[in-house]
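In the current project phase, work has continued on tokenised descriptions of protein folds. One protein thus recorded appears below exactly as we store it.

——
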Amino acid sequence: MRRLSKLRTEIESWHTLSQRTEDALELARLGDDSLREEIAHELKVIETELEGIEFATLLSGKYDADDAILAIHAGAGGTDSQDWAQMLERMYLRWAESRGFGTEILDRSEGEEAGLKSVTIAVDGDYAYGYLRSEGGVHRLVRISPFDSARRRHTSFVLVEVYPQVEADTEVEINIKDLRIDTFLSAGAGGQNVQKNETAVRITHVPTGVVVTSQNERSQTQNKVNAMRVLRARLLDLQRQKREEQLAELKGEHVSAEWGSQIRSYILHPYQMVKDHRTKHERGNTSAVLDGELTEFMEAYLKSGA
């Protein structure tokens, strides 16, 4: 029903635009000079709407209309990298909020001193995966480290992975006999927040070796549900890789988070610039980008046909 609703909305957009075009042509055929300004304005509106509909055709991949799962992993760079991972978490949450998308933290592992070792986020909204798939890869940060007493410049790397969320039992079949499910104590902030029960869940898919965890909920049952969502998405990703023999189809090659493999650089010192190395799209207002203004980078990626 959800897919049917999206298709109806898409078709209705074309029908409405077609009717507006016919109405504008009828006015033009009247040859009334007093209508010239009104027709010119309507033409601009039609052109803008047409550009929007044409862009939507770039989001026509099999899973583009689906929800997404976003995984962020700190890479080379120590504490700076973990802090960078938390900055990216905030950036994507702000972006999702600006588009009216729902988000849910499925798993979160904090760093020893600051930041995050990793975080997994479910992003729910129309074409969430279609937009976010452009973000898969290594993100590089260059700045004066707030953790270096000598105020030296540091380079940090974080790996971002993006998977489409799929409905249960529709795309991926998981045999319960192939799963090893372990429970453990959730990592808390200390004091009264430490969990005394084993609510965290780790699921291993034995045939593939894929391991997923969820510990953000207080309920072991809910953590198991969330872990299965992530497992299903990752197994779908493996299926796509094998079937199409193109690792870049969903999230690109799984590369190490270090020098030479970044898809985008965020330079905060000695100058300010965010540059995507695949599309060459760049922006000087780094604060705005880190505050969630990412859509222009995503659209540039889609338009490039990457």
Notes: Residues 189-194 have pLDDT under 50 and may be disordered. The first strand starts at residue 68 and ends at 74.
